[in-house]
Amino acid sequence: MRNHFFLALPLLLLAGCGGKDQNQSGMVTNILDQALPSTRDVPPGANAITPVEPAPDLPVAKGDAIHANAIPIALQGRWTGTSERCGDKAAAQALELTAGSLIFHESVGTVQRVTREGEGRLAVVANFTGEGDSWTRTLMLRPSTDGQQLTIANDGTAIVRKRCTPAA
Fold first, then answer.
1. CB of 71 within 8 A of CB of 62?
2. How far apart are alpha carbons 95 and 136 in whole angstroms?
3. What is the pTM of this model?
């Protein structure tokens, strides 16, 4: 008789645990549904790529014209340090310039204003974010006469970068 009790004990314990879920009414089983109750999955397109609405076009400078909020198209594209390889995405001095942003290796700046300073220099005021911080900075950009090098001065330090690819 005693052996039958020990065989039945695990079954009794399991049966006693079955009702606990009903007593935890505040328990969230799908945290995403709880945090984002108004969202829904978008069905993928015919080619299994989820459609994305394109971002609005940023104003782009034409030729050498300077718009108050855009980096000239002549400077847009990929740049890197003079001793770095262009294809190295982890290069410490990698830089992508677009009409409205400066994308460095560990920070991104959103262009607020671009002004011509003389001697071929441009002052770019940008709001930056990176590594959990935010700041505003004015960078001085000076392209070489052939457009293949770009000197960027920041807080008294200047770094020369070489062109990898022009803007598409």
1. no
2. 18
3. 0.58
